[in-house]
Amino acid sequence: MSFAGKYQTETQEGYDEFCKLLGIPDDIIEKGRDYKLVTEVTQNGDEFAWTVHYPANHSVTNKFVLGKESDMETIGGKKFKATVTMEGGKLTTRFPNYHHTSEISGGKLIEISTATSAKGPVVLKRVSKKI
């Protein structure tokens, strides 16, 4: 499955609740709510470079090889180690506070991040179109 391409946020669901659960400040949540994130993915076999462009010209790039532990970074700059795997055409990985999956469906990048709160799972779903 090829993920290579450049994508822009089309819709997102659960943004506010997910960000609040992760402790993102309200002013940052407000700035990012309607921002159309741009995600650029390059892929060479099992090797990926995944760059997300955030507001205020901030970008985060994570490079990884499927099935191998890689150095990763969150939007907040927190460094961690994770292993990205491919399961049923979906990329999956565990960030420090949530589980993340990405897939291509109907030519769109579908990303689902799931965190757990005292009330149960909190889900952020982002759908991005190819640009």
TrEMBL record:
Domain of life the protein comes from: Eukaryota
An example Gene Ontology molecular-function term: lipid binding
Pfam families, alphabetized: Lipocalin_7
Cellular component, GO annotation: cytoplasm
Keyword Nucleotide-binding carried by entry: no
Annotated family: Belongs to the calycin superfamily. Fatty-acid binding protein (FABP) family.
Protein name: Gastrotropin-like
Organism: Chanos chanos
